[in-house]
């Protein structure tokens, strides 16, 4: 699958001028509110017609303003998960889930339904009315409803934005399973570094209606493209597989990029593929092997680069195993410890900081 | 309690009123929904003109509406003649004419109620239905219409009640023929004009009160039922 979008649109003082190509997997559109992420998504879905634009999915032209081609949303077969769940209030959860199936080709069978219900953990909710669901439950049903319409592409527009931290934590694992267990390509809009880091294969950073950068999460989620607040959230991303689980202590050991990482998460199970987001601010640097430390992860490595971000903060990149681990330390510490490129150091990460 | 027993003529008037009001309401309902949709969602030139024409029967004296109907739908009226020549449908001095007059008089109430309810439907839900593969007509039938149900119920009952009580336009358009166009209201009016008719007028008044009250209760109950489904 290949999606190509190109849009030019002026709305008052706001100019959207962006083009994005996405292959399979999860492509994230990242940026703060008002950067044009949602406008771009609505053009992809066919919910908005831009002044000038082109949308091509695989070989099919869905929108071409120059040739006056416009395929309406219901013929595009793109699932859309909105920020608010938008469940139909007059239908039960079961009715909502079944809605898209009235209009989708009857090729998909019963098994699919059971699998989606199981994947999202919504079996106990089937007979409830949307009004009696919590925000997290509603969003899960909305995701299931979009999936069951057997979409060719899933568009998710900040599906977690309206939820509190606890609910986000409740849904993120389902989204990870969705990414791992289905072959539907996903375009995911978000302004959370941690969310994008965990889910996306590719990230396009949007700012002021333009695509400022595009690449893998560890390539683009750093530096000047992020606000000061977002930079505090940013970190390194490791992809790995759960090797063993210590049920008694709720600890999992994840093999990722040549490192063994202890993660505090009782929900993980052996063999599961996970992505770890290690926030830079939670990484400490030691010049000698530390002892008597509560932190479970001590990675031996070599400093590859140092980036002075100004305002007394230095971003240190440590190559360890096949991974690159970033740490944010003060310029003062840097000087005191004599940190320079090529120096062997230890990166220390608390397992609790990796709690998911 | 003998005085409560209706005479044969009075029964005829009651039955005719029910028939006229039912036919008028049911026939105008699809048109009412279509016009309400047009006014709620449509963006076209002359929308306020359409809105004005729909509301005209509400503000014009009923006699004027009846006279206009006579001019257009009477046997020699432009529309009336065409309908008679081509489809053998006649409105003049027939119960169908009474139904037409009642339908026209109740129409603004019906459209108003449905339109308000339709405007309250969250268009984001319609958008969501579109992304799930529903074509516009299906979106209307499976999302917009069910969510408009409380307004449709209220509008239908209002129009029915209006049709039951319609007097001026009906009597001007199709006169007052017992058994054909003499509805409940017309019968009461006639009875009050003849000596000794008070008892009959009173009986029919009781019937009118009962029917109106029943309609009101039914509308409350149905609206609550519909609202529970929609808001739940």
Automatic annotation (TrEMBL), chain A:
Classification via InterPro entries: AAA+_ATPase, ABC_transporter-like_ATP-bd, ABC_transporter-like_CS, Mo/tungstate-bd_C_term_dom, ModC_ABC_ATP-bd, Molybdenum_import_ModC, Mop_domain, P-loop_NTPase
- SUPFAM superfamilies attached to this UniProt entry: MOP-like, P-loop containing nucleoside triphosphate hydrolases
UniProt xrefs under Gene3D superfamilies:
2.40.50.100, P-loop containing nucleotide triphosphate hydrolases
Tell me the superkingdom of the source: Bacteria
Give the SMART domains listed for this entry. Answer: AAA
- Asked if Nucleotide-binding is a keyword of the record, the answer is yes
Keywords from the UniProt entry: ATP-binding, Cell inner membrane, Cell membrane, Membrane, Molybdenum, Nucleotide-binding, Translocase, Transport
Q: Which GO terms describe its molecular function?
A: ATP binding
Taking every annotated instance into account, which residue ranges of this chain make up the domain ABC transporter?
1-233
Q: Which family does it belong to?
A: Belongs to the ABC transporter superfamily.
Q: What is this protein called?
A: Molybdenum ABC transporter ATP-binding protein
Organism encoding this protein: Pseudorhizobium endolithicum
TrEMBL record, chain B:
Q: Cellular location of this protein?
A: Cell inner membrane; Cell membrane
Q: Which domain of life is it from?
A: Bacteria
Q: Which organism is it from?
A: Pseudorhizobium endolithicum
Describe the family membership recorded for this protein in Swiss-Prot or TrEMBL.
Belongs to the binding-protein-dependent transport system permease family. CysTW subfamily.
Membrane topology, as annotated, equals:
Multi-pass membrane protein
- The protein depicted here goes by the name Molybdenum transport system permease
Protein purpose: Part of the binding-protein-dependent transport system for molybdenum; probably responsible for the translocation of the substrate across the membrane.
Keywords per UniProt: Cell inner membrane, Cell membrane, Membrane, Molybdenum, Transmembrane, Transmembrane helix, Transport
ABC transmembrane type-1 domain span: 14-217
**Where is it mostly found?**
membrane
Indicate the transmembrane segments per the record.
Answer: 20-40, 52-74, 86-111, 132-160, 201-223
């Amino acid at each position: 699958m290949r999606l190509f979008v190109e849009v030019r649109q002026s709305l008052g003082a706001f100019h959207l001028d962006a083009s994005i190509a996405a292959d399979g997997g999860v492509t994230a559109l990242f940026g703060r509110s008002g950067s044009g992420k949602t406008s771009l998504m609505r053009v992809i879905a066919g919910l908005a017609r831009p002044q000038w634009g082109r949308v091509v999915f695989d070989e099919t032209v869905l929108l071409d303003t120059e040739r006056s081609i416009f395929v309406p949303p219901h013929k595009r077969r793109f699932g859309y998960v909105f920020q608010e769940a938008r469940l139909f209030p007059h239908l039960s959860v079961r009715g909502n889930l079944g809605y898209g199936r009235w209009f989708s080709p009857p090729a998909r069978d019963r098994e699919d339904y059971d699998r989606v219900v199981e994947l999202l953990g919504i079996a106990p909710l089937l007979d409830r009315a949307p009004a009696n669901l919590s925000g997290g439950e509603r969003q899960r049903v909305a995701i299931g409803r979009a999936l069951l319409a057997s979409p060719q592409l899933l568009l998710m527009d900040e599906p977690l934005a309206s939820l509190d931290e606890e609910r986000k934590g409740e849904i993120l694992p389902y989204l990870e399973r969705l990414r791992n267990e289905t072959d539907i390509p996903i375009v995911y809009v978000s302004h959370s570094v941690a969310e994008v880091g965990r889910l996306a294969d590719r990230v396009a950073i949007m700012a002021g209606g333009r695509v400022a950068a595009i690449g893998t999460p560890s390539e683009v989620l750093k530096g000047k493209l992020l606000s000061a607040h977002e930079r505090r959230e940013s970190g390194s991303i490791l992809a790995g597989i759960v090797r063993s689980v210590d049920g008694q202590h709720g600890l999992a050991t994840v093999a990722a990029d040549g490192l063994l990482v202890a993660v505090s998460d009782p929900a993980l199970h052996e063999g599961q593929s996970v992505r770890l987001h290690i926030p830079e601010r939670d990484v400490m640097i030691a010049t000698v092997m530390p002892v008597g430390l509560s932190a479970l992860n001590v990675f031996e490595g070599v400093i590859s680069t140092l980036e002075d971000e100004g305002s007394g903060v230095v971003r240190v990149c440590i190559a360890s195993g096949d991974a690159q681990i970033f740490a944010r330390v003060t310029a003062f510490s840097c000087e005191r410890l004599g940190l320079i490129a090529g120096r062997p150091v230890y990166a220390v990460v608390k397992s609790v900081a990796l709690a998911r | 309690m003998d005085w409560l027993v209706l005479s044969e003529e009075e029964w005829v008037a009651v039955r005719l009123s029910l028939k006229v009001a039912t036919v008028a309401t049911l026939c105008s309902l699809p048109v009412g929904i279509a016009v309400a949709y047009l006014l709620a969602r449509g963006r076209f030139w002359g929308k306020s003109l359409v809105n004005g024409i729909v509301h005209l029967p509400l503000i014009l004296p009923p006699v004027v509406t009846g006279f206009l109907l006579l001019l257009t739908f009477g046997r020699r009226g432009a529309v009336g003649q065409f309908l008679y020549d081509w489809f053998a449908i006649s409105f003049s001095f027939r119960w169908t004419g009474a139904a037409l007059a009642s339908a026209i008089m109740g129409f603004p109430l019906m459209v108003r109620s449905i339109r308000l309810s339709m405007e309250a439907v969250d268009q984001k839900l319609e958008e969501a239905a579109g992304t799930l593969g529903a074509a516009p007509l299906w979106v209307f039938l499976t999302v917009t219409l069910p969510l408009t149900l409380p307004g449709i119920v209220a509008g239908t009952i209002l129009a029915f009640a209006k049709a039951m009580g319609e007097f001026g336009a009906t009597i001007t358009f199709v006169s007052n023929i017992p058994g054909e166009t003499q509805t409940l209201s017309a019968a009461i009016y006639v009875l009050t004009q003849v000596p000794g008719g008070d008892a009959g007028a009173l009986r029919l008044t009781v019937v009118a009160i009962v029917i109106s009250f029943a309609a009101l209760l039914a509308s409350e109950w149905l609206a609550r039922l519909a609202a529970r489904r929609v808001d739940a």
